[in-house]
Amino acid sequence: YSFGVLWGTVICDIGMTVGSMIVFLLVRKFGMDFIELFFSKEKVESSGILKTTDGLTRVIFMLYVIPGTPKDVLSYAVGLTDMKLTTWLFITSVGRLPAILLSVIGGSSLGDRRYGIFIISMIVILAAGAAGGLLYGRWRKKQN
């Protein structure tokens, strides 16, 4: 709200990308010991990412584009894979953009008392999140 839609989106995306990079590098250095400070080993293994080798980049990118998928666990699990840091930075910076943009539009419109736009943006987020949850569930079932 404070920075407007464009700069709010840019600032949020940069902040999330830097945070994801830090997590990635810490997991690369300390491995599962670091992850277990935040998530159980079972939770990380249940994400399905560690079992996927073919098309890993494509799968993770799609999971990041779709709102409602468990990005926190994925952010940690990716550090255990052989993915390059540059690939990860692309995925996390570009993949989160739709959700960030919709959230910033919602926040900005709420702050500007444009409630119709706020409601529409929240409906889109909820619908995309529900669809994302269903797609992630199907993908997980397929992995098992």
C-alpha geometry: globular
Please state the structural category.
mainly alpha
N-to-C series of helices and strands = HHHHHHHH
Count of individual helical segments: 8
Rg result? 16 Å
Low-pLDDT segments, ≥5 res: none
What composes the largest sheet? none
State the helicity in percent bands: over 70%
CA distance, first residue to last residue: 42 Å
- DSSP strand tally: 0
Please indicate the percent range of residues in DSSP E strands (runs of 2 or more).
under 5%
Mean pLDDT: 85
Q: Which key terms come to mind for this protein?
A:
globular; 144 residues; mainly alpha; 8 helices
Describe the secondary structure blueprint for this structure:
Blueprint: H1 4-30, H2 32-35, H3 41-46, H4 56-65, H5 71-78, H6 85-95, H7 97-111, H8 115-143
Helix pairs in contact: 1-5, 1-6, 1-7, 4-6, 7-8
Written overview of the protein:
With 144 residues, this protein is mainly α. The chain has helices spanning 4-30, 32-35, 41-46, 56-65, 71-78, 85-95, 97-111, 115-143. It contains eight helices and no strands. Helix 1 (4-30) packs antiparallel against helix 6 and helix 4 (56-65) runs parallel beside helix 6 (85-95). The radius of gyration is 16 Å and the shape is globular.
Brief rundown of the structure:
This protein has eight helices and no strands.
